[in-house]
Amino acid sequence: MVSYFIPRGRFLLKAGNLRQVVQQQHQPAQLQLQPNKGPQPQAQNASLPVARHLRQFSSNQASKEAPLHHRLPQPKQQPNPSQELAQIRRNILSRWTGFLLRWAPMGICVFGAIEWQLQKNRCERDGKPRTASELQSRIYCSLPLRIISRCWGWLAACYLPPSLRPYVYGWYSNTFNVNLSEAMYPEYEHYNSLAEFFTRPLKEGVRVIDQQAPLVSPADGKVLHFGSASDSLIEQVKGVSYSIEDFLGPLETVEQANSGASYAQALKKKSDGSTELYQCVIYLAPGDYHRFHSPAAWKPTIRRHFSGELLSVSPKVAGWLPGLFCLNERVLYMGQWKHGFFSYTAVGATNVGSVEIYMDADLKTNRWTGFNVGKHPSSTYEYDELVLNKERTEAPKEFGKGDLVGQFNMGSTIVLLFEAPKNFKFDIIAGQKIRVGESLGHIVGSK
């Protein structure tokens, strides 16, 4: 501690003076006992300045005064060949790990860019829309989107303090153009969580059901695609198709399977050739009304729950990934309406906490499946099936036009697949914004 109070100029001392000071401090008794033998010869290096720090000198002096056994040289241990080999392996492993962590991300990016460009050139050469290759599809499906969706569902269900609600809900409303004037409760303070805000009910009368139309829109959203579904492959968007058999699963009865007709024709209830299968796909954006309704009066007979992926169903992804609706988790209800076969499917998506069907309390979606990301089932027919209206003692489960069916805990997609007369005409166009209760089509010549 003394060295902190000595000026820097005092550090440069003559070697002779320094030794004299040390001898006087550490050996006073020896100096008194020694006889006077005349003048001592001056040290040879007395005139040479030496720069020494006092703290360094004190530590050196303390080490000299240490016991002798601490300064004895320790015997050298013989090296162990197995330990040396293990150390060499650890060094090699650490070097390769550092190399991979540094250069692997860059290599993956370069490989991805090359694969993307090659797939683009293949699509342009074949005159097809720019879609994902098999490799790109597998990589996308390998992302932990279900884990992310479950975390988002948990976060959306968390209680939000009233002081933060105007800021969080206000930001969400401005970002996704939410129209709160139609909500039953337009005040932000009414909703305890984001999930409640997503699934907000509407005021009575803000959605008028068109009673003249045979089929109305089941949800607020954007029309992705519509048209005939008479072939085995139907379009999810323009130019990008998916298999109707993979989407719905096997036929309901053995008689339908053994009829010898194609899958689409075997679905029809009428075999006189007067009807045709049609489809309509409606996408619900994050800012839309997240509850969905019945588009017509119909009676469901079977519920199938396909526990698939939770990929994004946005229009851009739907136009890029073929068979998207067959890969994603979905809840499918098949039944009958006045014109024949009718199916209603709610397709899950990324960040959709769950799909709730009000009449089906046993349905559980977005369930934990472990960390087996990217591992698809060996067959698309792996699903949970529930036969409805089986017990005669229970009241039959039927839907009227405009009845509330369920809700998404985030935006997703509704797919309608139905049988109708051949003179059925759609009243919509692709890309159109549509709301609950508005007409989807009409039957030409009918009043």
What is the fold's blueprint, element by element?
Elements: E1 12-14, H1 15-26, H2 28-33, E2 49-51, H3 54-65, H4 81-126, H5 134-141, H6 145-156, H7 165-176, H8 194-198, E3 215-216, E4 221-228, E5 233-237, E6 240-243, H9 244-248, H10 254-257, H11 263-267, E7 275-283, E8 291-293, E9 298-306, H12 315-318, H13 324-327, E10 330-337, E11 340-347, E12 355-357, E13 384-387, E14 404-408, E15 413-421, E16 424-426, E17 433-434, E18 439-443
Antiparallel strand pairs: 1-2, 3-18, 4-7, 4-17, 5-6, 7-15, 8-14, 9-10, 9-13, 10-11, 11-15, 12-14, 16-18
Summarize the structure.
This protein is an alpha+beta fold and 447 residues long. The protein has a domain at 212-371 and 378-443. It is 30% helix and 21% strand.
Could you name the ranges where pLDDT drops below 50 across 5 or more consecutive residues? 1-16, 28-60
Largest sheet: 8 strands, antiparallel
The count of strands amounts to 18
Overall shape: it is globular
Strand order of the largest sheet: 13-9-10-11-15-7-4-17
Question: Residue share in helices?
Answer: 25-40%
Distance between the termini: 105 Å
Task: Describe the oligomeric state of these chains in a short phrase.
Answer: single chain
* Amount of beta strand: 15-25%
Mean pLDDT: 78
Structural class computed from helices and strand pairing = alpha+beta
Q: Return Rg in Å.
A: 40 Å
How many helical stretches?
Answer: 13
EC number: 4.1.1.65
Active site: 220, 293, 412
Site (Cleavage (non-hydrolytic)): 411-412
Region (Disordered): 62-83
